[in-house]
Amino acid sequence: MLDLRRGYEQIRAEILTAIEHACDSQQFVLGEQVAAFEREAAAFLGVPRAVACASGTDALWLALLGIGIEAGDVVITTPFSFFATVSSIVRAGARPVLADIEEATLNLDPEQVEKCLRRRHNVKAIMPVHLYGQCADMAAFARLGRDYGVKIVEDAAQAFGASWHDHKAGGLGDAAGFSFYPTKNLSAFGDGGMVTTDNTAVAERITMLRNHGSRRRYHHEALGANSRMDGIQGAVLRVKLKHVARWNEQRRARAAKYDRLFAEAGLPQVKPLATAPPAYHIFHQYVIRVERRDDLRQFLAARRIGSEVYYPLPLHLQPCFTYLGYREGELPVAERAACDVLALPMFPEITDDEQQRVVSAIADFYS
Ligand SMILES: *Cc1c(COP(=O)(O)O)cnc(C)c1O
To answer: For the whole prediction, is pTM greater than 0.85?
Structure first.
């Protein structure tokens, strides 16, 4: 599915030097490496401020608190994402409202969101997710934000370097959360996350919240949490940041290769997802929709080909969210996607031969 060693081998010497510097500095938590990473990541993304934290999950929670989400507020998001998208809303004290997704991209559908906005009055924010590395329709969400007076928080955990109409994810809303979990397209050597925003007051508030709600040592104005990034992670991320644009280009080339191979194979049982024209998709995942998905997965596994299902159970049907009162059948596009999506091996260094083997095996399964 993902061979992290190949990417590591290319930058091993650089990484080890950076870690050595971080160790020599003896700054273990935050410190100069993290501060430099925040500045460099903000510059790369074209946003005024970036605040590093301990995980993508925390980044989303901090972003919500940072823009002023409070107990009793409603935040609209997608049911078709990683768990943390919705759990961060609950953790911020708000109530998640889930709207269905677009058939073509599987991203949150602005029309469905607008229906929710018309029905509910205490909506404070919308949280679109840039699923698989493709931005949600951010022009539409920006319009909804203006028309209904609600904030936009991007879940950009899968989309470092992705863009919409030439504006990078992280700068398309009021705040955004990124994840540097080791499988993400920009990844640390452990957990890590970051919030971006164009609002200085929001950035300052998040900087306070990630450090136990403290601006001045041992004075706490809010509860906050311990959500600081380690110095070593900052050092690793600074090295990888220099390579991520090239890796994203390679992912795009690999995705185009899969598209060609599937077109040549002419398999009616396999449908690649669409890329919206304004999107610069960085293919954190390459996902197809297929018939008899679970049998196909077993068939591939027997040939030692990895595949994954992101995500097999939509969030509105998760046991811990039954109190939200959703029923099966209520968000049909997401529910269908959960039954037929399949993510194929995708990383910058995957070879032509390996991709050919994946597609040939899928063709064999259907023949
Ligand atoms: C990975 C991910 C997160 C959470 O990030 P962590 O760093 O693992 O906490 C949130 N949302 C989405 C869409 C993700 O893919």
So the answer is: yes
Pairing of strands 123-127, 95-98: unpaired
Query: CB neighbours (10 Å) of residue 188?
Result: 24
Instruction: Specify the pLDDT at position 353.
Output: 98
Say how many Å lie between the CA of residue 58 and the centre of ligand 1. Answer: 9
* Inter-residue contact 213 to 220 (CB < 8 Å): yes
Of 85, 118, 74, 139, residue with least CA distance to 277: 139
pLDDT at 121: 84
pLDDT given for residue 120 in this prediction? 86
- Ligand 1 atom index nearest CA of 191: 7
pLDDT tens-digit readout, 179-194:
999 999 999 999 999 9
* Amino acid letter, 277: P
Spans in the chain with pLDDT lower than 50:
none
Return all residues near 17 (Cβ < 8 A) that are at least 6 apart.
none
Q: Are 60 and 51 a contacting pair, CB within 8 Å?
A: no
Predicted pLDDT of residue 1:
87
According to the model, what pLDDT value does residue 21 have? 96
In the reported structure, the alpha carbon of residue 190 is separated from the centroid of ligand 1 by a whole-number distance in angstroms of 13
Q: How far is the CA of 18 from the centre of ligand 1 (A)?
A: 25
C-alpha closest to that of 202 among 69, 4, 3, 44 = 69
- Contact residues of ligand 1, CB 6 A cut-off: 55-57, 81-82, 84-85, 129, 155, 157-158, 179, 181, 191, 193
Specify the ligand 1 atom closest to the Cα of 284. 15
SS (H, E, C) 261-287: HHHHHCCCCEEECCCCCCEECCCCCEE
Q: Rounded CA gap, 131 and 282, in Å?
A: 10
